[in-house]
């Protein structure tokens, strides 16, 4: 299989961390839509949101998704990528979509332990754990319906990578 693999899920679920390790395991390239967007705009995500609003940011996010999509590539997507129907459709029809599913407690613990990895302004200005609960409530159904495979991402990264490899090649799983 050489079509792209898209990793979706909330901020902190491990799209970047697991995506890089998965790409290495498969001999695939790795790209991150947020990094692409930052390269194009020469701004941080927070700066783009401040300058262009969330709507402007979402448009650029869709453009980045299409721009980075390529064969033999693992694509880590922004947490809100699934909000737009066109993004969900594009990912499902052009590749394999993997949802890295983790609970709000796990996500909050990771983001609090590594606040520098929280690249985005909070959506609501409320405490991070509350915001994550709300975001998951709003988006979990979209992540689930977009994914070809739902993976338990609460495990250590190596185990998450192995679960994905097993899901991608069921015949070779043991
Ligand atoms: P995302 O790209 O989905 O926002 P990251 O890969 O940046 O998530 O991970 C967020 C933080 O959580 C990072 O500090 C990372 O080291 C940590 N992390 C990611 N995946 C795991 C995991 N499976 N187990 C423990 N910590 C993880
Ligand atoms: Mg990331």
From TrEMBL:
Mg(2+) binds at residues 16, 32. Residues 112-126 are annotated as: LID domain. Transmembrane segments: none annotated. Its cofactor is Mg(2+). Substrate binds at residues 34, 58, 79, 139. Keywords: Amino-acid biosynthesis, Aromatic amino acid biosynthesis, ATP-binding, Cytoplasm, Kinase, Magnesium, Metal-binding, Nucleotide-binding, Transferase. Catalyzes the specific phosphorylation of the 3-hydroxyl group of shikimic acid using ATP as a cosubstrate. Belongs to the shikimate kinase family. AroL subfamily. This is Shikimate kinase 2. It comes from Izhakiella australiensis.
């Amino acid at each position: 299989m050489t079509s792209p693999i898209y990793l979706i899920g909330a901020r902190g679920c491990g799209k970047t961390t697991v995506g890089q390790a998965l790409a290495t395991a498969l001999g695939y390239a790795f790209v991150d839509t947020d990094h692409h967007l930052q390269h194009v705009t020469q701004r941080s995500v927070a700066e783009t949101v401040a300058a262009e609003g969330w709507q402007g940011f979402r448009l650029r996010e869709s453009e980045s998704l299409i721009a980075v999509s390529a064969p033999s590539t693992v694509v880590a997507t922004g947490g809100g990528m699934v909000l737009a129907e066109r993004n969900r459709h594009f990912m499902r029809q052009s590749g394999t979509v993997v949802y890295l599913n983790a609970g709000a407690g796990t996500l909050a613990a990771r983001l609090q332990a590594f606040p520098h990895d929280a690249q985005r302004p909070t959506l609501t200005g409320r405490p991070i754990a509350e915001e994550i609960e709300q975001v998951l409530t709003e988006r979990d159904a979209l992540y689930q319906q977009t994914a070809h495979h739902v993976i338990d991402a609460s495990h250590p990264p190596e185990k998450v990578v192995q679960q994905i490899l097993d899901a991608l090649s069921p015949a070779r799983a043991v």
